[in-house]
């Protein structure tokens, strides 16, 4: 399971001790972005992940913005802007892999570059994931039609099971956490 290609950057990883590491049975990819990372990770820990059974691969994809013109790059603006996006991606992954470490979940954090729809599916196929977990940005019908939905694309193209965790209206407004489905 190679975690590195020219478009991927392994940011961090955490493993159990050698006895527990051999018992991992499931590869779970969790796609995170700034808006959904905390919610999807909390939901996954409360409702889905089994720490001594799962290897969690956190992925965050940053887009490559095309230059304004074919040869326009005044004083390295494009490189500086990409560097800022890379730093934000790395910080997001490091922050959330720490949560998994504290819960003793075997994990990796990988920064991807490109179109999120295609890169998430490429990575899921490459590592032969058993499940893809992702959040929903709650785009309305019109925005989803024009912008496209990453989760909608993944539902139709993902080779494995996919779970989309969507906060309910109250949680969106109040920022409250949803309880585990098993504690209701």
UniProtKB/TrEMBL annotation:
- Matching Gene3D superfamilies: HUPs
InterPro entries, alphabetized? Rossmann-like_a/b/a_fold, Universal_stress_UspA, UspA
Where's the UspA domain? Answer: 29-166
Q: Which SUPFAM superfamilies match?
A: Adenine nucleotide alpha hydrolases-like
Superkingdom, natural source: Eukaryota
Query: PANTHER family attached here?
Result: ADENINE NUCLEOTIDE ALPHA HYDROLASES-LIKE SUPERFAMILY PROTEIN (PTHR31964), USPA DOMAIN-CONTAINING PROTEIN (PTHR31964:SF113)
Protein name per the record: UspA domain-containing protein
Q: What is the lineage of its organism?
A: Eukaryota, Fungi, Fungi incertae sedis, Mucoromycota, Mucoromycotina
